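Pasting as-is:
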Amino acid sequence: MSASGSNPQKRSYPTSETTATDPEEVLQRDLKKHVEDELAGHAWEFDAVDVLSPKILKKEHEDQDLLELGHFDILIDHPQVIYAMTHAFGDAPHPNPFSKADYDNISHFLNECVRRCLDAYDSILETPMTPDLQAWELQPFGAAFWPALLFTKYDRPTGDKVKNAAPLKPDIVGVAVTDAPPNNFVACWSKLPKQSKREPRKIAIAVEVKADWKDMLLQSTTYGRAQYNDTPLRTFTVIVAINHAAEALRVLIFHRGGLSASKELRLTTKDWKAHSIPQFIKVLLSILLWQTPGDAGYPEFTDTEKFVFPSGEDNIVQGIQKEVLHNRQSSCGRNTFVALMQPFSSLDNEAISPTLLASGTAKPSTGKTSTHVSTDTRPPMEQSQLPKRKLEAESLPGKSAYIFCEWRPIVVSGGAEET
């Protein structure tokens, strides 16, 4: 199939596995024009590895308001991790020539890259850890944030959509499973439907394949927008864009400030020193080293239904989302989110556990401070600081309350702050 095959122009109609839509659906070409306007002046090129890797704020910078990447210890840069990569990435996979958008060939190449990452991950755990590496509390890969990652050809509409936009059609999807899904599986951006005859799988990473960078970036932006729709308070999401004509790829990070794209990584250069496959595998390993929802950009104070709020200096209030009053769908910007919250109390006076689950991940927060500087410059409140005692029911307000959230990205340029 040609690269243009991933741009469905026909109107799509609701099925039992899609969300309700407005009468007039938005075509893919119109949606790409919309996201192009949103991203205008908000796209940058940079090195993706350190930003995606798990990181811990250094103690000497804990009291600072404005944080920079250098203020963090970065897991992918730890000497023992570098040593493991040196040995595991020595035999980097070489993809077959990308003479066309061969999704099976590209999926195989991506899975070979994942296999090298797993070799490095296992090597890190098998080597006696230094005390500073032990602080990361690395789990066996099957217990990490993503217990597996498998790329497979898709190239058909997803099982859900964003409001009245037509269902998207990613060329390849990465799913957090070890075994290949059945041929008739349906990929979803949001929580999996409870009842489905088509073997639903949630998309971890979407992959777009085209011969034109601009068109591919715009199509990829619609994927990032769909993943934001699943978790509105998520800080960033990752898409892989492959230019089969140039035999190169970019890792795209969509965040509330816009788009940060990796430099063009060449895949099939004959000179070993010139091609960028080991660099791409390093980016993948940065992602597979995620241990908590916070590492992946998910808010650790909510599972999108239950919330934990600070109240005073040493107390918390827990609430249940009753109704979303406003959720601004966008690929970047403040992403205004307003919801009606009902403070939690029950007859047995049992409070909701402060350890929540990120949407669709089934991975609990561990309480480790994990911060990404792409949008929010302050570390999240450590769950370990939350009181473990029950909340007295009478101490909670009896009426509903509102939550109003906005992301306000901070860009540091030339020593000045811009908001």
